[in-house]
Amino acid sequence: SPAFGTATLSNCEREQIHLAGSIQPHGALLTLCAADGRIMQESANAASFLKMSAPLKGLRLRDLGGDLWTQIEGLVTQPASSIPFALRCFAGAGGAPLNALLHKAPSGEWVVELERAGPIVDYTKAIDRGVDTILTSASLRGLCDVSAAMFRDLTGYDRVMVYRFDEEGHGEVFAETRRPELEAFLGNRYPASDIPQIARRLYERNRVRLLADVDYTPAPLEPRLSPATGEELDMSLCFLRSASPIHIQYLKNMGVAATLVVSLMVAGKLWGLISCHHYAPRLLPFEMRAVCELLAEVIGTRIAALESFAQGQAELAVRRLEQRMIQSVCRDGDWRGALFDSAHALLLPLNATGAALLFEGKMRMIGEAPGTEQISELGRWLAPRLADGVFATSALAAEAPQFAPLAGVASGVAATRISSEPDEMLIWFRKERIRTVTWGGNPFKPPSDSDDPSELSPRRSFAQWHQVVEGTSDAWSPADRAAARLIGESVTDVVMQFRALRILIAK
Ligand code: BLA
């Protein structure tokens, strides 16, 4: 894997970003030997940050003066459970209050990160109001809109986006607030490759990342390797960690000077990011970052609740559909009316754009669907694939090139059997997800295919997203598949009763 800072666009997926070996210089980092509490490594700016003479190596924290050591002594000598730990303290000769963040690296040494403390602010009201706003949001859309606004109010960044990942890790700017003169990114989509897997795993653990100034000069760790282990310091949990140069180039190309990015976790998974951009350097103190982390946690919880509510609604809709099919059978001797008298009933539970029913050699369609010939051919192709109930793909043409011409209406299909006859089925369609976006001229360079990070830009990303997703639909979620299965089972039951009834009547 490429070492930190050596990745190119073709191998950046594996860049070892947690082994950055350097920090952003708005703070200072020290590592302490777990056995004797002496300083083993220091960021090159640490002595000047503390207005002391270099090197600090070999000193103990108490030698730095102030109350830093007395405050953390207990933690270092008797490891407590409240790690990572943050405190407000004095240290060094500067005389200004500092925030110290302490955590234990996987290799055993203690890591102390220092930053200048802000004024003491009471965030209780902001938190109360924020939590209230989040918990009273009734839809995902509404929640994400108010969350973006809330983060912009709180943090003062020029642009705040709620960036949402789909099933395959591609991203969409799902909500946005920005200074009015800035170009809108709302609705733009970017390929999964813009945020490597390694970074995503890291963001699940370290939920808030601040990049104070893209033009910073990194302060290297000295010595770079730990004298205790001979290893690079794992900086996964360091808030001062240098960001990947590729990502920094990306931001520079879009004219962004500083970012704050907070993970949105839903059910233990990285659901999305709240991404804040500023067009001048910007720094937020620890307490404010902690408030952002807390609110993001609450937002994640609310998203989970709204998603499970939406799934419950879909299940309810299927149950209603089942009832209406039974009523239809009793009323008109046919159950199909219930499926087709409104697009709502059949399409909504799966968020499909069209659907078709193949039953007793006949076909009925609703919404946007291919022609009858094409559906027949599709039905023959699907039949052997429905053995375990449901089949779904968001890239039909990739699996069966003969269906490429259907991409406009059926880039994605989901299907389920509805009887013991293999050729009797319900098929749902989703159209291609490409949307057209008009980009402004500057500061976005036109897309190119070169391997040079200076070419990176959201516009190139978008072009790439286009290539990646051409001929595909939005992915079918587990909830979509569950709904298809449920509808398939309901219809199967109804069809069985219907056939039994017909036999009865025929007698
Ligand atoms: C990280 N890339 C990121 C992050 C975002 C993006 C949001 C997370 C940054 C963080 O949490 O601090 C992508 N940012 C975007 C996009 C927009 C945006 C799409 O504002 C659109 C508006 N990046 C690439 C390519 C590579 C790459 C092609 O575009 C590699 C080949 C790498 N992106 C990359 C790396 C990181 C990253 C290595 C990790 C940065 C770090 O945490 O050190």
Please provide a written account of the structure.
The protein is α+β, with helices and mostly antiparallel strands and 507 residues long. It folds into three domains: 99 residues, PAS domain (Beta-Lactamase, 2-Layer Sandwich), CATH 3.30.450.20; 188 residues, Beta-Lactamase, CATH 3.30.450; 199 residues, Beta-Lactamase, CATH 3.30.450.270. The chain is built from 14 helices and 18 strands. Strands 1-11-3-2-6-5-4 form a seven-stranded antiparallel beta sheet. It has a six-stranded antiparallel beta sheet with strand order 9-8-7-13-12-10. α3 runs antiparallel to α4, α4 packs antiparallel against α7 and α7 packs parallel to α14. The radius of gyration is 28 Å and the shape is elongated. The relative contact order is 0.11. About 2% of the residues have low confidence.
Structure described in brief:
By secondary structure, the chain is of the alpha+beta class.
